Structures are given as structure tokens and as C-alpha cells.
Amino acid sequence: DGGITQSPKYLFRKEGQNVTLSCEQNLNHDAMYWYRQDPGQGLRLIYYSQIVNDFQKGDIAEGYSVSREKKESFPLTVTSAQKNPTAFYLCASSTGMTSGGQNSYEQYFGPGTRLTVT
Amino acid sequence: KNEVEQSPQNLTAQEGEFITINCSYSVGISALHWLQQHPGGGIVSLFMLSSGKKKHGRLIATINIQEKHSSLHITASHPRDSAVYICAVIVRGSNYKLTFGKGTLLTVNP
Asked: Residues A96-106: pLDDT tens digits?
């Protein structure tokens, strides 16, 4: 089955520790995205990548880092510099600009990782 | 002011009722998504549209580009429709990035 996997579903860390969230897709999508969701707020874009070995900052990139060494994988590291890391993190992917057409816009979401930092 | 506004924020209905959720946006867009998020957190894409109307089962989505407005309708609502419904737009020229509304929490009672 094609899809996006995120692991783990729940993650607990102590303040001051870096933590890496996994996102893998087997949809052969070029573009991948990381979003953060907080109660009462819409999803906000952290980082996105339109192609392997390239990525751009989203609206709230401070305190986060990413890599895109493989098409299938887009891990997100929440660093100790992120002041309020406790949140629900969602990864998504889309075919992206390389395929063209309206279907390029549609994003497919993973199940999410709920990170709690104490 | 948010670029994407949804109404209502919360909606409670009885099983069988016809439901409408509204989304207004203030920018030029390439496309609009309606998404569904269940309590477990995962998000499912219901529709993506850039004009007209789409239907899938009991769900209907419409968009009026001139009025910058979209609606999501659920006919014959059922308790399993209870979820958060999120409107998201791809702002024209934004490199395919989504801008999200805050969501509408729908509760359908049996």
C-alpha cells in the first residue's frame, strides 16, 4: 500500500534534548512538507522540500532543521532552541511542480507524531 | 486577519441533518483543499478544487472563485462524520504551499 508513515505516534523528551521525527513516503512524490499543529490554531508550515537535496524554510522554521537526502525520507529535528516544542507534527507529500497540472497541488498527510517535551 | 477564515468554529447537529461549513479567503489561489481530521489526529484529503463543484458520496464541495468562498456540505449526516474539517488554500505564486483555516469542529449526535 502506498502512503506516508510517521514514527513514533507519541514521543516524550526532556527539555534541552534534540529529537528527530521520522517521515517516510512510498508514493514517489517529489515534494514533502512538515507542519505543526497547536490547539486552536491552523496548521503552520515548518519546512518544505520540492526535490531531493533541497529544502526551504516555512513560516515557523526557527528551532527546527531538516534534511532531504533521499526522495522517500524527510526527517525533522526539533532542536533545544525551539522554545515551545510540545505540539502535534504532521508530515505531508505531493507530486509537486515536476509533474505539472492540478494534481500537483494535492497533499497527502501522514498520521502525525505527538511530541511532548517536559 | 487570517487569510483563510472558516465558519462556524463549532457545529453540533442531529443525525440526518444537512450540514454546511463555510470557508472564505482573501488572496488569489491556485486551488483549495477540504481536509478531515479525526480525534486520532491523522488528516485525510476530502476534496481539492479550483472551480465549480465536486461530489463524493454524501459530501459536496463548491467554490466560487469570484467571491473567494467555498462550502463543504454533508447530506444525511451521521455520527461517524464527527471530526474537524479544515479548509486550506494554495496561494497563487506560493510554490504549492498550503495556508490553513483553523478548522470547524463538527459533532453529530445520534
From this structure: 765 555 556 78
Of the candidates A94, A23, A109, the residue with the CA atom closest to the CA atom of residue B95: A94
Q: Which residues of chain B does A44 touch, with a Cβ-Cβ cutoff of 8 Å?
A: 100
- The answer to whether A109 contacts chain B (CB < 8 Å) is yes
- Report, as an integer, the average pLDDT of A66-86: 95
Q: Which of B2, B95, B100 sits opposite A43 (nearest CB)?
A: B100
- Alpha carbons within 13 angstroms on the beta-carbon side of residue A80 total 5
Phi/psi for A16 (5° steps) reads 95, -10
pLDDT above 70 coverage of chain B, percent:
98
Three cell numbers written together for A88: 502535534
Spell out the residues 6+ positions from residue B92 whose beta carbon is closer than 8 angstroms to its own: B27, B28, B29, B30
Closest Cβ opposite residue B41 in set A88, A94, A105: A88
A111 part of contact set with chain B, CB < 8 Å: yes
Q: Taking all residues of chain A, what is their mean pLDDT, rounded to a whole number? A: 90
